[in-house]
Amino acid sequence: QLQLVESGGGLVQPGGSLRLSCATSGSTLDYYATGWFRQAPGKEREAVACISSSGGSINYADSVKGRFTTFRDNAKNTVYLQMNSLKPEDTAVYYCNAKTSNDYWGQGTQVTVSS
Questions:
Q1: 3-state secondary structure of 111
Q2: Are 38 and 92 spatial neighbours (Cβ–Cβ below 8 Å)?
Q3: What pLDDT score does 29 carry?
Q4: Distance spanning both ends of the chain, measured CA to CA
Q5: What are phi and psi for residue 112, nearest 5 degrees?
Q6: Which residues pair with 39 in a beta bridge?
Q7: What is the predicted pLDDT for the residue at 54?
Q8: Which is nearest to 98 in space by CA: 8, 25, 45, 46?
Q9: 3-state secondary structure of 30
């Protein structure tokens, strides 16, 4: 069974950058679509960025286009989310997801953007 562990969250000032990592174990990433989601207090979980299982298709939420980049290293079984030009509205718990016929989730990592 695939297991996911996120890291890299923290407190950052507006305009700053963070890189989130999602280390996976228990299976190879080759056959999974992967994605990053976030959930702010009082709001529903939303998709931020997703990569198809082939890696040939990457999609971003409109709110993060041009600022966030997702990529993965299948050899390291790790998925990344590079976040630049962070805004206070990016504050949320960020979750890593991997999907085939089942959905797998990490425990989440807190990102707080504040001066």
A1: strand
A2: yes
A3: 83
A4: 40
A5: -125, 125
A6: 93
A7: 87
A8: 25
A9: helix
> 106, 5 in Cβ contact below 8 A?
yes
51-98 pLDDT, tens digit per residue, is: 998 888 999 999 999 999 999 998 899 999 999 999 999 999 999 999
* Predicted pLDDT of residue 20: 98
Identify residue 29 by its one-letter amino acid code: L
- 115/97 Cα distance (integer angstroms): 29
- Report the relative pairing of strands 58-60 and 46-51 from DSSP bridges: antiparallel
109 contacts 20 by C-beta, under 8 angstroms: yes
Using alpha carbons, list the distances in angstroms from residue 87 to 25, 40, 44.
32, 13, 19
